[in-house]
């Protein structure tokens, strides 16, 4: 079993947090378990799976 990598963003910028999420998705191996916690200012994100 692989270890869980916990990443916590202290940014409230939705553009930054979505960019980090995309980078994590593209750069981490598929076998790596990642939990990315982030919180934004009032935001609606549409079209993310």
UniProtKB/TrEMBL annotation:
| Residue stretches making up the BPL/LPL catalytic domain | 13-48
* Coiled-coil annotated spans: none
Does the entry feature the keyword Nuclease, yes or no?
no
Q: What is this protein called?
A: Lipoate--protein ligase LplA
**Where do transmembrane segments lie in this chain?**
none
- Keywords, comma-separated and alphabetical: Ligase
Q: Which GO terms describe its molecular function?
A: lipoate-protein ligase activity; lipoyltransferase activity
């Amino acid at each position: 079993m692989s270890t869980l990598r916990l990443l916590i963003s202290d940014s409230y910028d939705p553009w930054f947090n979505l960019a980090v999420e995309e980078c994590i998705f593209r750069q981490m191996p598929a076998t790596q378990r990642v939990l990315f916690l982030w919180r934004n200012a009032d935001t609606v994100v549409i079209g993310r799976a």
